[in-house]
Every structure is written in structure tokens, then in C-alpha cells.
């Protein structure tokens, strides 16, 4: 291991995980906001998360991030979205990097993520199944013209408007009240069902229907890497509560 060893309290579990990774060639990682907190992106439900931050609005974050609210008050949505949800300066941390390296080595087959930040792709991962969409894809609701994150960020208007048809541009992010993409769900279920090692990291496993997908795993090695307890703790074959980035950094010298 490396100089992170003394910071980690789950070393025996981490060493066992290293062995399991080396014995696997159909690994799937199922992740949530906790994998990106070490990149400076706040999660949603922890004490320091977005849902607990002070805001001067009379609406809850869940209400603002709903499709009916977007339709009614796009200017309030975009103000919250740009100030709380977008972190264009964020970069992949050791967790994103190790997962990308494991895919390149042929061991990891898919990442199923609830995140919308695109950090897995930035780290080099190819097969990333984004259950809740991505901030990097934006479309005009009228003519479906595509726009980048930079174009949305640089829009002079409070609500980005399509230059081609004057329609409202919406992020390709699944809001409350919207359905997840069927194709992404089906591909995620297939990947999880065929896995020989399931890594679950940085997620409270409380957001449905996404959290239910882990129940499709049929193998005997489920690893849960999460700082706080989850409803699935008792089902995990290995439980690691150290910060996921530090854990992946410690694993790097063993599994690559």
C-alpha cells in the first residue's frame, strides 16, 4: 500500500478487496454523489449536503429540482442549478481514476452512476451508464438542438434560450417527476446481473428506482464503500467506511 495507510481504519477489508479485484474480470461499480465529494462537489443528503445548505428561497431543493417547477419557474430553477449543482472546476479524484484504470485493464465492465457531473468520463471511463443524465448535455425543448455546459454557463439570459428557435434549453438531467431512461436502466440491470464483483460506493442507496438496481446482482461478492450506514449494510459481504478516494488510492499499487 502507500502513505495513506495510516489514515485508513479499514485496512484488512481494503486488502481483501484488493484480492477480490484481482480475482475478478466482470466488475461493476454502482456509485452516487459520495464518490465526487473528494473532488469538491457537495452531495445531497449528508449534513454538509445541498439539501441542508442555507438558501433564501421559500422552496425546498427537491421542489426546485422537479419538472413541474422547471416548467413554471425556469429562472428560479436555473439560478439554483448554476449556483448549487454546477462545479465546472471539479476534477476526477483517485476513485474515478482507479475505476478508469480497472476498465482499461479489462477488469471493470461498467460504471452505473447516479451522478450528473461527468467526472467518470473525464477520468477516462468509457462504459458509463448515467441513470440521472448529465450536466454536459443540454437540449432545446422545442427543436432539440444540442448545447454544451459551457454554452449554458455563458448564456447572458437567466434562462438559456436556443438561438435557432428561441425555445428554452433544458439540461439532460432527470428531474423529480421525470422517468429514468429505459435503455439506461436495461443496460444497467444487465451489467449488474452479469457482474462477478459488485462495488457500491458513495451512495446512501435511498433514491429509487436507482437503488433497487443493485438487487439484480447474482454474485457472491458485494462490497459497500460508504461513510454512513445504508439500508443494504447487512447484505454486504465487505463493508468499508473510509473515504472512497483514499481507499482507491491505497488499492492502486495492489491491483494495477
Automatic annotation (TrEMBL):
Main location per the UniProt record: cytoplasm
Gene3D superfamilies: SIR2/SIRT2 'Small Domain (3.30.1600.10), TPP-binding domain (3.40.50.1220)
Keywords, alphabetical: Cytoplasm, Metal-binding, NAD, Transferase, Zinc
Cofactor binding, note field: Binds 1 zinc ion per subunit.
Listed InterPro entries: DHS-like_NAD/FAD-binding_dom (IPR029035), NAD-dep_sirtuin_deacylases (IPR050134), Sirtuin (IPR003000), Sirtuin_cat_small_dom_sf (IPR026591), Sirtuin_class_U (IPR028628), Ssirtuin_cat_dom (IPR026590)
Binding site for nicotinamide: 44, 116-117
CC annotations in GO: cytoplasm
Catalytic center residues: 132 (proton acceptor)
TM region positions: none
Family the UniProt entry places it in: Belongs to the sirtuin family. Class U subfamily.
Protein name in the entry: NAD-dependent protein deacetylase
Amino acid at each position: 500500500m502507500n502513505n495513506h495507510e495510516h489514515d485508513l481504519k479499514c485496512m484488512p477489508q481494503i486488502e481483501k478487496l484488493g484480492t477480490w479485484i484481482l480475482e475478478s474480470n466482470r466488475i461493476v461499480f454502482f456509485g452516487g454523489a459520495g464518490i465526487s465529494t473528494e473532488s469538491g462537489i457537495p452531495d445531497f443528503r449528508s449534513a454538509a449536503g445541498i439539501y441542508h445548505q442555507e438558501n433564501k428561497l421559500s422552496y425546498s431543493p427537491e421542489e426546485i429540482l422537479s419538472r413541474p417547477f422547471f416548467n413554471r419557474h425556469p429562472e428560479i430553477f436555473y439560478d439554483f442549478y448554476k449556483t448549487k449543482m454546477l462545479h465546472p472546476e471539479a476534477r476526477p479524484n483517485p476513485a474515478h481514476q482507479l475505476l478508469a484504470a480497472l476498465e482499461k485493464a479489462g477488469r471493470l465492465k461498467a460504471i452505473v452512476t447516479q451522478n450528473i457531473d461527468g467526472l467518470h468520463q473525464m477520468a477516462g471511463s468509457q462504459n458509463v451508464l448515467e441513470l440521472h443524465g448529465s450536466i454536459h448535455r443540454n437540449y432545446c425543448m422545442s427543436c432539440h438542438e444540442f448545447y454544451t455546459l459551457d454554452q449554458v454557463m455563458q448564456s447572458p439570459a437567466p434562462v438559456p434560450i436556443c438561438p435557432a428557435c428561441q425555445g428554452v434549453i433544458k439540461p439532460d438531467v432527470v428531474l423529480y417527476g421525470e422517468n429514468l431512461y429505459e435503455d439506461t436502466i436495461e443496460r444497467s440491470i444487465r451489467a449488474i446481473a452479469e457482474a462477478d464483483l459488485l462495488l457500491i460506493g458513495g451512495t446512501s442507496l435511498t433514491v429509487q428506482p436507482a437503488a433497487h438496481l443493485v438487487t439484480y446482482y447474482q454474485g457472491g461478492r458485494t462490497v459497500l464503500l460508504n461513510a454512513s450506514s445504508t439500508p443494504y449494510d447487512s447484505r454486504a459481504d465487505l463493508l468499508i467506511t473510509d473515504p472512497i478516494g483514499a481507499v482507491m488510492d491505497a488499492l492502486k499499487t495492489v491491483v494495477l
